[in-house]
Amino acid sequence: MRLINSIKNKYRQANFFKLMGIALLCNAGVYNTLAHAELLPATTAANVTVYELDNGMRILVLPDHRAPVVVSQVWYRVGSSYEHNGVTGISHMLEHMMFKGTKKLKPGEFSEIIAFNGGEENAFTGTDYTAYFQTIAADRLELCLRLEAERMRNLKLDETELKKELQVVKEERRMRTEDNPQALTFEQFQATAFVNSPYHHPIIGWMDDITNYKVNDAREWYDRWYAPNNAILVVVGDVQPAAVYALAKKYFGKLKPSLLVPPKTQIEIPQLGERRIKVHAPAEVPYVVLGYPVPVLKTAKEAWQVYALDVLAGVLDGGDSARLSRELIRGQQIAAQVSVSYDMYDRLNSSFVLSAVPNDNKKVADIETALRQQLNKLKTHKISAEELARVKAQVLASEVYQRDSMFYQGMRLGLLEAVGLGWQRADEYVAGIKAVTAEQVQSVAKEYFVDQHVTVAELVPQSSITAPNVSGE
């Protein structure tokens, strides 16, 4: 359930588009899915063929012959968490510039060629990776690989094109963050919850940094990270692995690797007390975000804790029958909207986040108290066997549906490889979720939902159109 949300949350933070939501079933269908959770599509990670070129580029091929279509994705192990002050957002900026021409391609020509051949293409930047993808007829795969290889090492970074694209990115930030009070509040929450972790920075970057980019900033970032030994090619669809390898070797094999210097490890300092901010911005309704520091699959000492946190997220926010919707929206009618977010596939320690919009005539303090009460219930009372089974069933049902998508299968493999977990862990999710016990859910609630470790960001609506203000009240 949460892997696709992991991707979706990255898109939301990067001001990109949303992918599929969580598949929700009625109880009868859910229990049936749980009973048959093993009946997943045959195209699982076990069917992946892996190659590595002499220059260090990894190639993952997953055949899926249900339709004469192929999904091609190139992932680079670099995102906003690799950046430093002064160039925040440069990974996202470079993503835009990758469509602005190479030694052989004019600006925009990459997209024109893909569209002319009936394909679709785009790209996205996350905290820990940047990825480029195409969906196209299987017999056009060679075209995609040729074009991607061309811009991997031959990008033309022009000052004039950069200045044009700067305005596009600045407008994107204004529209999707600064003029979106909830997004602005969440950005300030992140900057408060993470002090020295690079997750402090927004994926799109701070406006002052964007304004002052120079073409050399983009060129240095490109030269440093856009190399075959920092890239993963993922191909899913109606293909034969040996044929994909031959094409990849033909186009990418001749590219020279870079001397990669990994970013310095930046571990978030221990939180010694509650952190609280208020964001004053033009808005119609108030909004509140609560977050607690938690481990992820890559950093956890015990993997079961991560799966238990994922199940716990489903207990709180797994559809209309989940606790927050049932008790806070329909029951007490204290919330108009409520949601939970936890990304177990981050590269660094993350946050377990709850957010809500209070109902009419209710205060932010009321909804914050109600959210904390729900967390305390999880600490003091084990969830029932019936509720645990229902939540697991929803998680597993979502996994079944998502594996039906070639694009999702590629995303799953690429993301796991890019953050350093390894594609082999793709099939561990179902077993990990099924093994979670009620005692483990209670255990992680007690360990991580600690009042002294919470960060709270409150949106205070302003009636007049004034510049946003952030206070540490």
Briefly, what is this?
The chain is of the alpha+beta class and 473 residues long. The chain has helices at 2-13, 27-35, 90-97, 109-116, 141-153, 159-178, 181-193, 207-211, 215-225, 241-252, 303-316, 323-331, 364-380, 385-402, 406-418, 428-434, 438-448; strands spanning 49-52, 58-63, 69-76, 120-125, 130-137, 231-237, 275-282, 287-294, 335-342, 350-358, 455-462, 469-471.
Can you characterise this structure?
By secondary structure, this protein is an alpha+beta fold. 42% of the residues lie in helices and 18% in strands. The protein is built from 17 helices and twelve strands. A hairpin with a 5-residue loop joins β1 and β2 (58-63). The chain is globular and about 60 Å long. The two termini are 36 Å apart. Mean pLDDT is 89; it is low at 1-43.
Structural class: alpha+beta
Topology pattern, helix = H, strand = E: HHEEEHHEEHHHHHEHEEHHEEHHHHHEE
User: Uncertain spans, ≥5 residues at pLDDT below 50?
Assistant: 1-43
Q: What is the arithmetic mean of pLDDT?
A: 89
- What is the CA-CA span between the terminal residues? 36 Å
Shape: globular
Count of runs of 4 or more consecutive helical residues: 17
Strand content: 15-25%
Biggest β-sheet: strands ordered side by side in the sheet: 1-2-6-3-5-4
Number of strands: 12
**Biggest β-sheet strands, sense, barrel:** 6 strands, mixed
Radius of gyration: 23 Å
**Roughly what percent helix?**
40-55%
